[in-house]
Amino acid sequence: MGFHISSSPHDHAPLSTATLMRRVCYCLLPGIAMQWWFFGWGSLIQIALAVLTAYAAEGLVLTLRKRPLTILQDNSALLTALLIGIAIPPLAPWWMVVIGTAFAIIIAKQLYGGLGQNIFNPAMVAYVLLLVSFPLHMTSWLPPLELQQYPPGLADSLSAIFTGYTLDGFSPHQLRELADGTTMATPLDTLKTGFTQGHTAGEILSEPVFGGLAGIGWQWVNLAYLAGGMALLRLKLTSWTIPVSILVTLAVLSFLGFMISPDNTAGPLIQLFSGATMVGAFFIATDPVSASTTFRGRLIYGALIGLLIYLIRTFGGYPDAIAFAVLLANLTVPMIDSLTKPATYGERR
Known about the structure:
- The protein is mainly α.
- Helix content is about 60%, strand content about 0%.
- The chain contains 16 helices and no strands.
- Helix 1 packs antiparallel against helix 11 (about 220-235), helix 3 packs parallel to helix 5 (about 120-135) and helix 12 runs parallel beside helix 15 (about 295-315).
- The radius of gyration is 21 Å and the shape is globular.
- About 45% of the residues are buried.
């Protein structure tokens, strides 16, 4: 073996945008599979509707802007659609995911100039729009299938999404009440409602939706997204700084809050393995366009998101806080990058 000399630059060629986005989508598959397993076909139907809407909306805008339709091949619309689809309750009306996805692509992405120009995460903009506009539908998650008296199959899910009723005539609201006697189905919803009504954490944790780490179904969904996040790091598709900063900050704050007031706050396991914590930390907050770009900036950005998640979940009006935390942190990115800009070689600091 000889010693080979080559001219600069010596860096390896980076992945193309299409390849990067496609691999991120692959890493989402374990979590999507778990959502289908515990919450039924509705999740896959919402994802399919979101994907179709995303490509149609982006194709329309590109045509109006007289841009080549080959831009659709960068897979950024696909990733945005997947993130919106998994955030929508499985049996939410079909028009909600269509409105949210179209808004994400047309307003939150293309209005700013397309991929690389948006200052906010498009999927989270769509989620907040739907949550603020249709709070009842957006908080109407069914309990995991094993807790449901009449778990909907594929045909029932299609019927409920497009007509509002299953083939047997049950609405999503009725399916929730038949399952656990309450319209609050998710662990974070149950905690928020219980604390508001004056119940202690011990009393709330006796609800049927809780079990194991942080709630039946939700804990496995989060573990699956954690596995996908580990794959992201292993494939070097994202940096460890933002997700680790988010999770460490959230764990420390929830531990301190639980130690101070164990009867009125959620513990670290529930905070970390319920709701959208893992998908938010690894797949949403790490958006390379809207997140901080410097090393120290990413640590600060992640810590800020972790802090906001804890504050909103504990003191705010919404049980989950990923979307609000990410969008608020997006606003601070220019300042964070400016304050953490590394010194130029030879510059006196």
